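Section 5: illustrative case.
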């Protein structure tokens, strides 16, 4: 089975942990063991989040363009995952690929930036960033954070290269953080843009392009709950059309649901959502939430 595995940000930076290399590599090591187990039975392509890392790089560089910060974080995390997989699977070929993802320059998201990135600024520093750099800010706790556009991914530039590597049996790590945001300008030439692309929507785009059997969205909860924040009714199986009957938390589960819905509408395709440590059980249908047209009705498990 061909699986696109989308690692959530918790795979590299657990909530509350420091953003130093030691802690992040330790988390990558946990994720890599799970990936190695899957690679023993399936063809896998790996994507990952980079929210904390791209924010850290953008804050450190202050004026660093977001496409450059995205490339730096994708390279850094891709290197960690690649190295751990090579250590675990010395007889397998692994490649980490910097991936550009095209967006439309007239995407409405550019006029309505909504994605918070980077550190929290106090009122004085936030005002300075607005005046000096033209940043847009949004309230966050006791301060403000920068908000940027999150446009729709329309094309993965390196898709043919990724597909070629997959056909050759290579484990590919790509499209990290949603990919490096680019758009076409004069004469159709690509250039970077100030944006971040939702990693789950990019993963769904990649999975469709590769004709994957399963889109595996891994996070830090056991699956999708029918009500949130109450965790009493866990959705086990659901057809895509039924997803619209529920409301999901913006910024966390909602993007995963949208990605799962887009992918699972395809004939025979299945999307699954669950926690990192249960990945193998999710693939076997023993854990997590599975979304696909083959389930004609909703199945919910009451949990304590």
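Designed sequence:
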């Amino acid at each position: 089975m061909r699986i696109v595995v989308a690692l959530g940000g918790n795979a590299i930076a657990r909530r509350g942990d420091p953003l130093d290399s030691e802690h992040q590599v330790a988390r990558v090591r946990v994720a890599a063991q799970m990936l190695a187990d899957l690679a023993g039975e399936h063809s896998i392509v790996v994507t990952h989040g980079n929210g904390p890392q791209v924010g850290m790089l953008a804050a450190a560089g202050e004026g660093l363009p977001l496409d450059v910060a995205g490339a730096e974080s994708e390279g850094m995390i891709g290197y960690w995952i690649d190295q751990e997989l090579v250590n675990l699977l010395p007889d397998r070929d692994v490649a980490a690929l910097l991936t550009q993802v095209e967006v439309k320059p007239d995407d409405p998201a550019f006029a309505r930036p909504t994605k918070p990135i980077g550190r929290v600024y106090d009122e004085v520093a936030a005002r300075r960033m607005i005046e000096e750099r033209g940043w847009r800010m949004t309230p966050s706790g006791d301060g403000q954070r920068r908000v940027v556009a999150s446009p729709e991914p329309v094309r993965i530039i390196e898709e043919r290269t990724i597909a070629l590597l997959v056909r050759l049996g290579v484990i590919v790590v790509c499209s990290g953080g949603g990919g490096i945001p680019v758009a076409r300008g004069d004469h159709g030439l690509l250039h970077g843009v100030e944006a971040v692309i939702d990693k789950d929507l990019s993963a769904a785009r990649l999975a469709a392009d590769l004709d994957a059997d399963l889109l595996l969205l891994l996070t830090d909860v056991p699956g999708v709950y029918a009500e949130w924040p109450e965790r009493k009714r866990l959705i086990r199986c659901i057809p895509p059309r039924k997803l619209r009957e529920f409301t999901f938390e913006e910024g966390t589960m909602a993007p995963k649901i949208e990605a799962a819905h887009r992918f699972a509408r395809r004939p025979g395709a299945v999307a699954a959502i669950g926690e990192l440590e249960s990945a193998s059980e999710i693939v076997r249908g023993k854990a997590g939430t599975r979304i696909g047209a083959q389930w004609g009705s909703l199945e919910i498990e009451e949990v304590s």
